Amino acid sequence: MLTTNIPKLGVPGDDFAWLQDEVRRLLAACRIEAHDGTVLYTPDAGRHYGALWTRDFCCMVEGAPRLIPTEHIAAGIDYLLHRQREDGALPDRVEPDGTPIYCAGPPHAPLGEKPPTDNPQLLVKLVGEYFALTTDFAFVEARLEALWRALESLPRSADGAVYIDPAAPHAGYGFTDTVAKTGAEWFSTLLLWEAWQVLGKIARRLEDHERAHEAYEQADRVHRTFPQFWDDEFGMVRAATYECRQYDLWGGAYAVRIGAVGSKQRHAIAQFLVDLHPHWALRGHVRHLVAGQYWERRLLPVPHDTYQNGGYWAVPTGWVARCLLSAGHGDLAHGLVRDLLAEFRHNGVHEWIGQAERALPGYVAGAALLLDAVKAEQAGHG
């Protein structure tokens, strides 16, 4: 994840210690061994998902980089990257027997004919995290070309945004992979900007100045597509430009988190969240859309108020809290984190929750990403 000056939220030392221990426990419980001995970090401690998912592994490493052995991170990167297709596409997940699955959904009923539009960016981010931990120049240099091809494999509009054809919809950003967002897709485009920035920094450290310059130019090109997603009247980004042109709460908060928007937009996004707070938060978890709204088009039937169509998730809570804090809404930001920690401590970590249900216990990404957003308060400080 790109480094920004957005502060972390202070939490009581006992809460921080508990969260760190819980993430460590979940990381140990989610591990399985692949056919070749590679340690795979599956999305949940119950191993419901049972494979190495590019997206979830990235969340774990970003959230808790020092709780995962660096040799496991490197091996996981290669377990994914070695299954890159000739066209540059990367797998959504790889099974323990080594079988790569490129499209979202079950292999017998994929959600569209193309892969989700976030896996290349997420693998670049994984390599960036590994490099930050190890400064292993040889490792990243040997994989730079493959990462470049992966980013270039993404479907793009003429102006450079990640694009999904309305006539042939498929999964976009993976945490909404059941949703048929079409036209230019915001979250994947945002991740593409971030990934080119990461590749540029890596290339510069490798003293590959030509590659670095090209990567930064690509990032600038992607950034110039951002205005088409912005709704100036309401102060929030839209999830897509054709179908599902709905306000993307996760996408707005993440844009602030990685410094992709300026001060005016940062404050507008935070104000949107403040004004509608009761309509997107539940026990510290965050909805994709404001309550009462559901995705316009879906690739798979998902009942209202469940999963990706109205469920509340912990994955974006840290992004939202830091967005609020950065714009001066510290009370709401700290309250959101307190609520989530209380829910975790009393009822456990789940993939998503609803008013009367909790789904998939032991979901690692939600806890790991919260850990990335907080720090232990110093003794004597509130």
Spans where pLDDT lies below 50 across 5 or more residues: none
Largest sheet: 5 strands, antiparallel
- Arrangement of strands in the largest sheet: 11-12-13-14-15
Which architecture would the CATH scheme give at its second level?
A: Alpha/alpha barrel
Please state the CA-atom Rg, rounded to the nearest Å: 19 Å
Residue-averaged pLDDT:
97
Topology, number of strands = 16
| H/E topology pattern | EHEEEHHEEHHEEHHEEHHEEEHHEEHE
Short description:
The chain is 43% helix and 11% strand. The chain is built from twelve helices and 16 strands.
What does this molecule look like?
- 43% of the residues lie in helices and 11% in strands.
- With 382 residues, it is α+β, with helices and mostly antiparallel strands.
- The chain has a single domain (9-376), classed as Alpha/alpha barrel (Glycosyltransferase).
- Strands 11-12-13-14-15 form a five-stranded antiparallel beta sheet.
What is the fold's blueprint, element by element?
Elements: E1 9-11, H1 13-29, E2 31-33, E3 39-41, E4 52-53, H2 54-63, H3 70-81, E5 93-94, E6 100-101, H4 119-134, H5 137-152, E7 163-164, E8 183-184, H6 186-205, H7 209-223, E9 230-231, E10 236-237, H8 249-257, H9 263-275, E11 281-282, E12 285-287, E13 312-313, H10 317-326, H11 330-347, E14 350-353, E15 358-361, H12 364-373, E16 374-376
Parallel strand pairs: 1-16
Antiparallel strand pairs: 2-3, 4-5, 5-6, 7-8, 9-10, 11-12, 12-13, 13-14, 14-15
Helix pairs in contact: 1-12, 2-4, 2-12, 3-4, 4-5, 4-6, 5-6, 6-7, 8-9, 8-10, 9-10, 10-11, 10-12
